[in-house]
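thread from #wetlab-drylab

HS: before we spend reagent money on co-crystallization trials with 4'-deoxy-4'-aminopyridoxal-5'-phosphate, can we at least see a predicted complex? here's what I'd submit
DV: go for it
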Amino acid sequence: MEESGSRELYGRALSVLPGGVNSAVRAIRPYPAFIGRGDGGHVIDVDGNRYIDFVMGYGPLLLGHSPPEPVRAAVQSVASEGPMYGAPTEIEVELAEFVTRHVPSVQMLRFVNSGTEATVSAVRLARGYTGRDKIVTIQGGYHGANDSTLVEGEPGAAVPSTKGVPEAVADHTLPVPFNDEQAIDHVFEEFGTEIAAILVEPILGNTGIVEPAAGYLETLRSYCDETGALLVFDEVITGFRVGGLGCAQGKFGIEPDVTTFGKVIGGGYPVGAIGGPAEIIESFAPVGDVFQAGTFSGHPVTMAAGLETLRYAAEHDVYSTMNDLGETLRDGLRDLAEDRAPEYTVVGTDSLFKVIFTRRGRDVTNGADVNSAQTERWERLFRPAMKEAGVLLPANQLESQFICAQHTSEDIEETLEAYKAAL
Ligand code: PMP
C-alpha cells in the first residue's frame, strides 16, 4: 500500500501540531492516513488508497461523504451569501422548529459549536437552574473535553482524569457505573439534595457500545423526579441516529429534562445544542441568569447542513436502510465471532456496531466491561489489517463505529470478508 503522502504530511504536521493532530483521538501509530476526499461511504487518502469508512467523522455524517443534492445546494447557497453575521437568521429558527417537532422533550434549543460546548453549557444550566453543584456521571461515559466530566474514581473520591483540571472541580462530580441501580441509590442517599443533574449517554458510545438494561433509564428518571435533579441525556452520538428522528429517548420512551446534541444535527459542520422545555432552557441568558454565548453559534452554513440533512432523513428511507445494513453486518459479525473468536462480543444497535475484544465473552453491561477488553491486538494487528484490506476503523478501540446512508450491501459484504481475514 502506497503511503508516502501520508508519511510526509505527518512529518510536517509533527512540527506544527502537537502529536501531528488536532484532536487527541486521531493519533494513530505509526501515522494516520491523511484523507484527500470522501465519496459516499468511502474515503480516499492522499496516496489514492480507497477505504470503506466506518469512522464517518466520528458520527456526524449520517448521509455519508457525498451529500444528496438538496443538502449540497443549501450549503452552497447559504455559504455564497456570506459566511456569518453575529445576528439571527431564518435558518436557525427553522432547524430549531424541526427539532422541536420531532423530539417531544424539546420545546426550545440553544445552538452552540460542538458537543463539548453543549455538555459544558448543560452542566452550567443544571447548576444554575437547581442551585446545586454536584453532577452524577457514568464511569466510561464521555461528554467531550469538559472539565466537570474528565473525572474518574468513585462518588466522593473522584479525581481529574487529566492534568489541568483542578481537584476542586472533580470534587463536584460523582461517577457511578452504568446499569447499576444500587450505585444510583447510594449516590442519591449520600448526596441527594446536592445533586444538580445526572448526565448520561442513553447508550454508552465512547466506551461501548453498551445499551441500557431494562428499567435503568426509568430508574434514573424517577430519582430525578423525586429529588429535583435534572436528567440530562447526552445524545451527541445517538441524537438523530439511534431511534431515527425521535432520537434514543424516543426509542427507549424516556423524556429527559435536558438533551445535548451534536454531530448529526449539524450535517457534518461544527455544532452542538442544548434542548429541553422552555421553563428550563429559558434559564439561559438573555431570559435567565445562566450566561451562555458564542460568536459562531447558529452558524448559517451549519444550520443549513443540519436542517437539510434532517429533512432528507425525514423524507427518505434513510434510517431503515442504515439500520438494515447494521443488522446484516452485526449478524454476519456474530456468525464470524462464533466461528473464529467465540470470546469476542458483537455490540451495537441501529447504525452503530463494534466487536469488543473481551476475553471472557460475557455480557457487556458497563464501561468497565468494555475497558477490560482493551488489547494491543487492536492497535498493532487488527486495525492495521483492516486498513490494509480497505476498511477504515476508528483509532480508539473503545469508540463506536458508524454506518451511513451511502454504505451499500457490497460494502457490508466486503467488510465481513475483511473481518473474516483479520479476526
Ligand atoms: N458527548 C458525546 C456522547 C460524544 O460522543 C462526544 C464526542 N465524541 C462529545 C460529547 C463531544 O463532542 P465534540 O467532540 O463535538 O466536542
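DV: The mean pLDDT is 96.
HS: ok that's useful, forwarding to the group
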